[in-house]
Amino acid sequence: MVGRLDIPALLLMLIAISWGCTTSIASERSSTELSEGSGESASLDELIGVWKGGSLCLWSRMGTSCRGSVNIGLTLVPATRSKVTGFYTCASDTIGCRNRLQNGAIANIEMNGKRLWLRVMLADGSSCLFTSRSGRDRMAGGYECLQGAGLVEQGRWWIERIY
To answer: Are 22 and 14 in contact (CB under 8 A)?
Structure first.
């Protein structure tokens, strides 16, 4: 009987050890994901420049196409009253951009602490809201595209400063 008790006790100990390791790994992954693109926070003026990266569609409304990954770019320029504005591009040499829209205007940029919100207006009247932790040279986060008040696409995005 003692031998039988030792085996279940050993199994419980192995399960507890592996669970503890899994929890530790998951915690490390979460902190890495949270810091992705965070770097040091930047002010809006420090974000001025040319940024290149990509976006990955994870969900789209029925009847529209979630085509996967596309190359995107942001050009941020100074505007009046200490504001920043700019342009959005979706590269035409990758799979088709949403609704074949390759250009857009950055309508609004706001920063609250380290959190950045950026709204891109597209020619068909839709808009995409990009959110991220601000960074001096890299940013990554999520995006949502709206047509009127309806959500039409969601995904992830990432960019790096190139100029």
So the answer is: no
Residue found by looking up tokens 């192995």 in the block: 14
* Per-residue pLDDT tens digits for 24-41: 333 333 333 333 444 455
- CA–CA dist 140, 89 (Å, integer): 17
Q: Domain spanning 44-161 has what CATH number? A: 2.40.128.120
- How many helices (H) does the chain have, and how many strands (E)? 1, 8
Kindly report, residue by residue over 103-146, the tens digit of the pLDDT: 999 999 999 988 999 999 999 999 999 999 988 899 999 999 99
Residues ≥6 apart with Cβ < 8 Å to 52: 71, 72, 73, 159, 160, 162
Structural tokens at position 15: 């399960």
Tell me the whole-structure pTM to 2 decimals: 0.71
CA distance 135 to 161: 10
Nearest Cα neighbor of 64 from 154, 157, 153 is: 153
